[in-house]
Amino acid sequence: MTAHPFAMFDTAIGACGVVWGAQGIVGVQLPMSNADKTRLRLRQRYGDLDDVAPPAPVRHAIDGMIDLLDGRPIDLADVALDLSEVPDFHREVYAIARTIAPGKTLTYGDIAKRLGGVELSRDVGQALGRNPCPIVVPCHRVLAAGGKPGGFSANGGVATKLKMLEIEGALVNHTPSLFD
């Protein structure tokens, strides 16, 4: 088995990593507590990694992610993704999520209705929880009912989601609870 090409890059929220293949980006890792842990998490997901200089399309994606996390309203819809290993339903969810502009949000129910019915809301949430390409597929822009933040599986959980939304200028109905 060959090593997957990958690169690490620094953002306003920490060191992120990206893995790509011939068809596009296959994975983005949001920051762990340090760059070594971010790299380790990528190895757990993708196996052997080959740290190489990213080709132009991946460099474009990295620059866009850095700019977005610096507060510039960058649209990453043109970034090529290779989601061939992702179930069809998840790809449909991700396609809708990619239409959400920086600073805007949809709810799990909004996406579920577009896919056939609000009863799919939990399935939408599960698909977003398995999003292999956060930032490019902006799962952080999908909220629970009433504009509440809902869950977020990345390191830092909801606090990371809220930080990303704050950077983008999105309004979130967040009342801290004992569980935040």
Give me the Rg, rounded: 16 Å
The termini sit apart by 41 Å
Number of domains: 2
What structural class do you assign from the helix and strand content? alpha/beta
Fold blueprint:
Layout: E1 4-11, E2 14-21, E3 24-29, H1 35-46, E4 49-51, H2 56-69, H3 88-97, E5 106-107, H4 108-114, H5 121-129, E6 142-143, H6 157-168
Parallel strand pairs: 1-4, 5-6
Antiparallel strand pairs: 1-2, 2-3
Helix pairs in contact: 4-5
What's this model, at a glance?
This protein is α/β, with parallel strands linked by helices and about 180 residues long.
Describe the structure.
The chain is an alpha/beta fold and 180 residues long. It folds into two domains: 4-69, Double Stranded RNA Binding Domain, CATH 3.30.160; 88-168, Arc Repressor Mutant, subunit A (Orthogonal Bundle). The chain is built from six helices and six strands. It has helices at residues 35-46, 56-69, 88-97, 108-114, 121-129, 157-168, and strands spanning 4-11, 14-21, 24-29, 49-51, 106-107, 142-143. The chain has a four-stranded mixed beta sheet, with helices on both faces. Strands 5-6 form a two-stranded parallel sheet. Helix 4 (108-114) crosses helix 5.
